[in-house]
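=== RUN LOG ===
request id: a7f3
mode: sequence -> structure
chains: 1
length: 855
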Amino acid sequence: MRTKILAATAMSVLFASPAFAQAQGGAPAPAQGGIAEIVVTAQKRAESVQNVPIAISAFTATALKERAVSDVSALSGISPNVTLDASTPFSGSTAVLGASIRGVGSADFAFNIDPAVGVYLDGVYLARSVGANQDLLDVERIEVLKGPQGTLFGRNTIGGAISIVTHEPGKEFKFQGDVTTGSFHRLQARGMIDMPINDQLSSSVTFGIMNRDGYQHRIPFRSATPYVTDGFTSFPAAGYSTGSNTQGGDNSWSLRGKLKWDNGNGLKATFTADYTHVNQDSTPNTVLATTEGVAGPFAGLAANNIPGTALDVTTGSSGWLFAGLYNFCISATPSQIAARNAGNLCGPRSSVNGFGTLGALGGATNRLPYNMSNASTGNIDTTYANGNNFSRLNQWGLSLVLEGDVGIGTLKSISSYRKVDFAAGVDLDGSPLEMLQTSFLVSQYQMSEELQLTGTAMDGRLKYVLGAYGFKEAGDLHDYVTFAEGLLQVDGPGRVKTVNYAGYGQLDFKVSDLLSLTLGGRYTHEDKEYYGFQSDVNGFNYKLFNCMPVSAACASALGFPNPSYSLFDYYPTTPTAQSFNNFSPKAGIQLRPARDVMIYGSWSRGYKTGGWTTRLSNPLPLAPTFGPEHAETWELGIKSTLLNRKLQINAAIFSTKYDGIQLNQQQGVSPTVANLGDASIKGAELEVTAAPGGGFTIQGSIAYLDAHYTYICGQSGLRASCNNNTAFVASNPLQAGIAVGSDLPKAPHWKINVSPRYEVPVGDGKVVFLADWTHTSEMRNDTEGTFLLNRKATDIINASVTWKAPGGRYDITVGGTNLTNERYLVTGQAQVAGGQIYGTYSRPAEWYARIGVKF
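=== RESULT ===
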């Protein structure tokens, strides 16, 4: 009810206010009043956003700067039906983008899992969510396209696409830069220089640095008596660094250089090189609950166990899960341990020095139990964590864009090469123990080539786009996870290779001044390979079944696939392959009853490629696969510019049939991905902008979304697309569960934004007052609807005041973000089997001051 009242209030503000803002996210209105036109390339050709029959939120460089939007995730608050998070569960890095548009998204950064929202940098697809949360240091504009974009943008744009267009070198010397200070000792500097070389060749260099302390502090554990722990360096990891005494800080720099050649007769070439370096602490983490008391099958009562083992298969609940098992081992007597056949489970553990090189937990003294008292400080901005605390990223790319007139149209070639090297380590247990320590290595490269032919025929009545696309990526990933002081030690290297080819086309035909038609399609063929080695170097399965010492005979008995190669590998050493073929069509109709009014309807399909789930912790003959996702969307919209460009109203309603959904679901300690069912997504978006003059403008948007499951694998029988998976999770004290009618994660029902802007002359200069209010209703943060992880309804307010000197050479801005200090969970995980439910809270209220200059 509260959200409906807010929606009604916002509607009254939008339509009753004496003035309205510029185009949604667009440049400020011209001095004479009126909404500035924004030119986009959403259909592979330059055209006004008001003439594109797609729901788009477009943002210019000026709008991004005024609203303190510094990276892709910050667009979330001002884009209707869009959720963009700076980080995903246990990634430990704000360089990772968790993106969802209209309820379609992905919340995992693993190499073997593809994003559902495509991010493009100057036309180049960024294949990994690692590094996709781009620093927006020299952006000309950003286009957020909603709904499946499979025809023109291809695979993995099933939810939508985010196109980042950076600054083009100018033909005159120009420098523009700014320096920003603010909360948490923030120091940020950015600059862009245009340097013409001759009449045909120009260049630009852009740089940016960002340093800021973290907002969550690591504090010493309060302990009156000494305690024993093995320390996180005892266990395998991607690196070892405790960083500073904070988490959530920034330390990065970026550089981009461009060379542009233009002969003045339509032949152009642009070469771009960019590099980003990140070396900072991990994202903050807060333990919301510990689950050591949840019953499980490990070290069950002897009467319930498989004879001779420590595994309860009779009740599955007379023992413990990992945190409870740890607490049992350190507190039980030798006879109690023996009574549950848990001597090996509680015995010596592996370390970086090899198998069984650490002492036993059974009979240990002065060890801390794991519980909420030892895992939480009671303050979301402090933690007892003392393990790994780092996030490192080196990302660079090269691209060459060639464009020229070939008679029948304009031919454009986009060639690129990109490389990502990523390492991160985060202490997720919130305690001085090693109960959940994760670290990762990712090394990836990609190459792509795209040819586009755009043109017109039939006296301009027919517009066409034809294209061919080739893409290849390969790389390594390595996961390290330590559970329960080393009771389970996941060591998960793997290799992935993808080769993709596609051809596409779209025709737009103007039947008359009133009627236009669109027809397009894209065919894609893709080959993927995965080569996995995941293992547990502590041999928990051997100890659980008391099949000791570890041997080839035990490995064969327990189903390990590689007894002749490795006694610990869960998957065989041979690579597995999958191939995918897809045709994504689009059809549309546009009516133009007036010059600046377009009514459009469209039907489109898109798909997201399949892959492998690799984080299971039991022996398997093959790494489990999951199939592609498919979405089919109907959309009806209107785009209008009225009252002599003083009022703009854009609206859309849509309905999506979303099948074969790939979602993360916990299976024991393992976050797995599978096709979990189907969903129905329906919603609406309204964006209103206006600029009546007088220096006062306002803009706003209202979005409604209903995204829920219509079929759940395993709840009412299995379909072929379920691959024998079951997604049904019954409601329980910790979770709402998954059932028909359950909401999809990251899909709030309501999002409302209102942004007034007032520009007033002061002497020969001017002062700009700007504010943003964004209301977002409650949403699930995970698939299972974990109650403690749900993101509460939020009301975020940002504001700033800018003085612009005469001539625009200098400007000074003072502002604040999240002024009411709303704290909400950005992301998190219910690691019930591992022992905790944890999450990352949003940044607190912050101030900033910026000085800018240009000449």
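=== NOTES ===
Residues 2-16 form the longest helix (15 residues).
The chain has one domain: 2-291+374-432+446-486+497-534+570-854.
=== END ===
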